Amino acid sequence: MAGPKRLLALALAAPLLLSACSGGSDGGAASGGGSDLSFAVVTHGSAGDAFWDVVQNGAEAAGKDLGAEVDYQSDGDPQRQSQLIDAAVNAKVDGIVVSMANPDALQDSIKAAVAAGIPVVTINSGAAQSAEYGAIGHVGQDETIAGQGAGQRLAADGATKVLCVVHEAGNIGLEQRCDGASQGLGTDVTLVQVDINDLQAAQSTITSQLQSDPSIDGVLTLNSAVASIAASAVSDAGSDAEVATFDLNGDVIAAIQNGSIAFSVDQQQYEQGYLPIVMLQLYAKNLNTVGGGQPVLTGPGIVDADNVDEIADLASAGTR
Fold first, then answer.
1. How far apart are CA 296 and CA 139, in angstroms?
2. The dihedral of CA 310, 311, 316, 318: what is its sign?
3. CB of 26 within 8 A of CB of 292?
4. How far apart are the first and last CA of the chain?
5. For the segment 263-284, what is each residue's pLDDT rounded down to a tens digit?
6. Distance CA 127, CA 138 (A)
7. pLDDT tens digits for 95-120?
8. C-alpha torsion sign, points 155, 295, 77, 60
9. Are 247 and 220 in contact (CB under 8 A)?
10. Please, how many CA atoms are within 13 Å of residue 60, restricted to the half-sphere of its CB?
11. Dihedral sign, Cα of residue 301, residue 64, residue 318, residue 178
C-alpha cells in the first residue's frame, strides 16, 4: 500500500514543481504562484516527539518545494489545539492542516474555519469525522485496518494473548488500533492504560502485567517511545512475550535489528505532513480535491528484520 501513495505524492507535486521552476529569471517558486500562500499545520503531538517531528519535516519540505509558507504548531491539549486553529483562522491563512485525535473537541473550530472559507485537510486521526466537519480531504492510515494487520502478524508469529498499550486517554485512533488488533488476532486484546509523559511508570505497569499473567505472549504498543520501554519491561519480567509497535524512531529500528522488537506498523508520517500541503496548494490554485471523498492512505506497512536496514538510513534523515 505504501508504494502507490509515494507515487501519488510525486504525481501531485510534479506539476506544481514544474510551474515553480518555470518562472524565469524573476525567481523560481515566487513566480510559480506559490509564495503568496500561507498554510497552518496544527497537530496534537508533543514537542520533540519523534513521530511528529517527521510530520513537521514533511510539511515544511512541501512548503519549501512549492514556495508556500508553512507554520507548524503542535499541542497535545485539545483545548489549546482548538485555540491554535482559531488563531490561524483569525490570521486568514489560505489553508489549515489539522490532526483530530479528539474530533469532538475540535469540531467547532474546524467548522468555523470552513465557514470562513478556509479549506481544511485533516490528517492522522479522525477520518470518520473529516468530511462531516467540512474538510476537503483526509491523509493518514485507516487505524482499524492497521490494527488488523498488526493482530494478524502477531497471530502468525504464534501470539494468543496480547497486551495493547494505550498511551493517550481519549485518543480515538488508538482505540481503533486496539479494536483492529483484536479482530486480526481473533481474540480480544487486553487493554492497559499508561501515561506517555511518565515512561518510567509506564514500564513498571507493563512489567507488572507480564509478571501477574505469564500467559501473555504478545505486547503491542501504539507509539515508538512506548515500544522501547515495553521491550525493557519484557526483559525485566523475564517474559518471552513478543513486542510489536506502531511507528518508528531510531530506538525502534535498532530494536528490530537486534531482535528485541519483532516489527513495527509504519504509517509513513512524512507523507501526512507533505501531501496535505500539496492538496491545499492544488485547491487554492485550481480547486482540485484528492481522494474522491475517501481518505488518502499512507499505510500500513510492516517494517521488520527483512527490510529494516533499508529504512534505517531514511529514518536517520528524518523522512521515515
1. 5
2. positive
3. no
4. 15
5. 999 999 999 999 999 999 999 9
6. 6
7. 999 999 999 999 999 999 999 999 99
8. positive
9. no
10. 11
11. negative
* Cell numbers representing residue 272 in the block: 501526512
pTM of the shown model: 0.78
Instruction: Walk across the sheet containing 242-246 and list its strands.
Output: 190-193, 162-166, 218-221, 242-246, 263-266, 301-304
Among 137, 209, 133, 223, which residue's Cα sits nearest to residue 173?
Answer: 223
Rounded distance, CA 300 to CA 195, Å? 25
Residue in this structure with the C-alpha cell 490554485, named with its chain if needed: 285
Closest CA relative to residue 281, chosen from 23, 39, 30, 9: 39
All structural domains of the chain? 2-141+267-300 (3.40.50.2300), 143-266 (3.40.50.2300)
Copy the grid coordinates of residue 181: 488488533
Report the sign of the C-alpha dihedral through residues 182, 185, 187, 192, in that order.
negative
- State the sign of the Cα–Cα–Cα–Cα dihedral 27, 33, 34, 37: positive
